[in-house]
Description:
The chain has helices spanning about 40-50, 55-60, 110-120, 130-160, 170-205, 210-275, 290-315; strands at about 1-10, 15, 30-35, 65-70, 75-85, 90-100, 100-105. It is of the alpha+beta class. The radius of gyration is 36 Å and the shape is rod-shaped. This is Magnesium transporter CorA.
Amino acid sequence: MTITIHYKNDQQQCVSTTNWENVPSAALLKWMDVVNPTAEEKKLITERFALIERHIEESVYLMSRPKFILNEQQQSTYVLLHAIDDHNFSAHPMSIHVNKQWMITIHRTELDAINQLQNAWQQQQLDIKSTDDLALQLIDIITKNYFRFIDEVEDRVFSFENQNVDRTNNKKLMDDVYDIRSEIIKLKRVLIPMEQLLAQVVDEDMYTIAQQQRWLFKHIHSRLQHQRDTLISCEQITDDIKDNNESYRSNRINRVMNVLTIISSIFFPLSFLTGWYGMNFKYMPELNWHYSYFAFIGISLIVTITLILFFKKKDWL
């Protein structure tokens, strides 16, 4: 496990340490980041900060839906959300525990969003005055990072416009389409619950925060709505590609069946003549005629040419 503590010193600078004892008791803004805690460390964190053990397990071992829980008695907030941190589009749960002095983040693996927030705070790029500001900035960074994966999917979907559906690349195209649809499903499993949660928080005004923080919260919700709409649009495009592919395959099958039907129609009278003169009757005058073979060939050619001309006239060929 790795525990890193960040706090704001007297010079309003962000200082990082891995030792509890180095954190001044007078520091008003403190952030502890915990990666994959052991059972003993979970117990220590739970007792020291009055956290619920299940909330820690949800951010390490379980894959629960995003949550937003206010504890008015302890004046604390618990947020469970999912980060996307690799190109497998898999979700990584992370819990955020916020009170007046501390923000505690717990997750199983190292996350880019944590490093981005740490660097931005140390370089004083963010106006952070409270733990609520810190938590909102972290949620903002996590949802911004969704764009990296959504844009990748969107670019791949739009690249299909330059690919023609034919026998050569049709199979590869459809393999790519099904791969992207799988990625869209994974992203929607992360985005839609997050968007629904923030919509509930915004609509019910669950979070008592300053006006500027409220604006950022609504902005994050709007961003998630935009990301959700982008994924739905990409999914609809892949549906259209699937439908076009099915139409293309159906047309190909219809053309093949049309050719086979015409060939069968041409050979049907020839088969009839062959069967007729192939009967083993003793008296068939035509069989003893000197030119019977050539006459049969001529009749067969006439029937074949007549049928071909008839099919062409009907525009069936």
